[in-house]
């Protein structure tokens, strides 16, 4: 398989980098947690009940939603790892080999995880900042399923979930945002605590417990109880717009006060990625962040804007091993990562 064909087949529509405000916001995700009424939570049920839930969701979605069913027990560890890296399933679901399943759309912008922490986690992904639009899509899918099944719902508490932090709307909305200016100017250490005080949380690119590789942060709501869906979306949207404004100010300040250092940083990273024969994940992400910043600021013209979105997936361990056709040692992955990045750059320059 050629690299070009691999990229075309393996990247998702939400990685295109064509959505609103995509110079700073890479993607938007909305997830709704739901459980079936009169059914034990996924943390305590057995295999028979788990299989029944998968069948019920398949029947509920079959007529209206064009989704492909993937059962975790049928997938190899590498295949599940790739799905995690593409944000289509959670690490929690990947480990649920006897119980878990996912219904995924052809464009990979919809993923319904079944028998994760909750019976259902309806997830929708969009390019750029599209909180309301992505919520609307998730709600339409939710309505289709609710026509066929009965959810666990309380008039006072809202939707009932396995974890108390999801009770209420069951809504988790998040944006993946690229903030190199705020990191370089050392403002993020002050901003993160301030965001936490607003009922939001800042995490790495794979959510809880993950690193903020390549100056990419995931901003999401913490509270689901006592707030409406619209309140949650509006609060998050307001904070994201403030972050975007501050990021632009930080970039402007860097260009005014340290233009030569900034340009040197960008082109050094460009040179490393274009010529390295071996590169680790953290260094690759940092250099990709610098190159993406260079594209946004107009320093670099012959590399596509979507490169950070694509390569932050394609250079992950699971993808590298899938591309190689089998398991790789750490050093072999670093060599493959460097080769893939060089080829990706050459592909853009040729086109």
From TrEMBL:
Keywords, A to Z, come to: Allosteric enzyme, ATP-binding, Kinase, Nucleotide-binding, Transferase
What are the binding positions for ATP in this chain?
27-31, 87, 121, 172-176, 203-208
Gene Ontology molecular functions: ATP binding; creatine kinase activity; protein arginine kinase activity
Q: What is this protein called?
A: Protein-arginine kinase
Q: Name one GO biological process term.
A: phosphocreatine biosynthetic process
InterPro entries annotated for this entry?
Arg_Kinase, ATP-guanido_PTrfase, ATP-guanido_PTrfase_AS, ATP-guanido_PTrfase_cat, Gln_synth/guanido_kin_cat_dom
Per UniProt, the short sequence motif RDXXRA motif of the pArg binding pocket involved in allosteric regulation occupies residue numbers 333-338
Q: What does this protein do?
A: Catalyzes the specific phosphorylation of arginine residues in a large number of proteins. Is part of the bacterial stress response system. Protein arginine phosphorylation has a physiologically important role and is involved in the regulation of many critical cellular processes, such as protein homeostasis, motility, competence, and stringent and stress responses, by regulating gene expression and protein activity.
E.C. numbers: 2.7.14.1
Concerning SUPFAM superfamilies, the annotation shows: Glutamine synthetase/guanido kinase
Q: Which family does it belong to?
A: Belongs to the ATP:guanido phosphotransferase family.
The keyword Transcription regulation belongs to this UniProt entry's keyword annotation: no
**One of the record's GO cellular component terms:** extracellular space
For this protein, what reaction is catalysed?
A: L-arginyl-[protein] + ATP = N(omega)-phospho-L-arginyl-[protein] + ADP + H(+)
Q: Which domain of life is it from?
A: Bacteria
């Amino acid at each position: 398989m050629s690299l070009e064909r691999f990229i075309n087949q393996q990247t998702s529509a939400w990685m295109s980098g064509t959505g609103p405000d995509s110079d700073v916001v890479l993607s938007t995700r909305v997830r709704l947690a739901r459980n079936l009424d009169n059914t034990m939570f996924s943390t305590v049920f057995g295999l028979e009940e788990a299989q029944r839930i998968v069948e019920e969701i398949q029947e509920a979605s079959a007529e209206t939603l064009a989704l492909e069913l993937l059962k975790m027990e049928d997938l190899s560890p590498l295949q599940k790892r790739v799905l995690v890296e593409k944000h289509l399933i959670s690490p929690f679901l990947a480990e649920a080999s006897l119980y878990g399943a996912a219904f995924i759309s052809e464009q990979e912008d919809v993923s319904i995880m079944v028998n994760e922490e909750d019976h259902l986690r309806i997830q929708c992904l969009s390019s750029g900042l599209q909180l309301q639009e992505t919520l609307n899509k998730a709600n339409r899918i939710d309505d289709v399923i609710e026509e066929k099944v009965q959810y666990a719902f309380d008039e006072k508490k809202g939707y009932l979930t396995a974890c108390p932090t999801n009770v209420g709307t069951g809504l988790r909305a998040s944006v993946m945002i690229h903030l190199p200016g705020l990191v370089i100017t050392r403002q993020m250490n002050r901003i993160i605590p301030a965001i936490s005080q607003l009922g939001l949380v800042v995490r790495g690119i794979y959510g809880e417990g993950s690193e903020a590789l390549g100056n990419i942060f995931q901003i999401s709501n913490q509270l689901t109880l006592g707030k409406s869906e619209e309140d949650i979306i509006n609060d998050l949207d307001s904070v994201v717009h403030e972050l975007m404004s501050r990021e632009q100010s930080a970039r402007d300040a860097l260009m005014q006060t340290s233009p030569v250092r900034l340009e040197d940083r960008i082109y050094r990273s460009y040179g490393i990625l274009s010529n390295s024969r071996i590169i680790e994940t953290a260094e690759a992400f940092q250099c990709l962040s610098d190159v993406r910043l260079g594209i946004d600021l107009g320093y670099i013209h012959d590399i596509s804007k979507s490169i950070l979105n694509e390569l932050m997936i394609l250079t992950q361990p699971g993808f590298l091993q899938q591309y190689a056709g089998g398991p790789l040692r750490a050093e072999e992955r670093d060599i493959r990562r460097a080769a893939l990045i060089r080829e990706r750059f050459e592909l853009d320059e040729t086109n």
